Model the fold of this input.
Amino acid sequence: MTHRLVEPFDVDDNSLDDLSPQQCFALGVEWASVRDALGRGELGPFMVHAENVPRLRAMIRRRRGLILSAASAREGWALLILDQRCGQ
Done:
């Protein structure tokens, strides 16, 4: 099996340095889940960890998308609402 970078994860800013390996794994799985959903044409809304919003915003921007809202839903969580024209 060969592994390759599919898309930048935008972590060159040391933003994951204070997180545990388990937290980093969860953020990566969440990022991949949103990416896969967008690839299937699903536009959310997506409940995500608040600390993942900047990375998800960058990924969605690369897909010519726009996050209309990243409202705090509960402590540590955000609800991403995308422009329905995302990816068009």
Notes: The chain is about 35% helix and 20% strand. The chain has a mean pLDDT of 82.
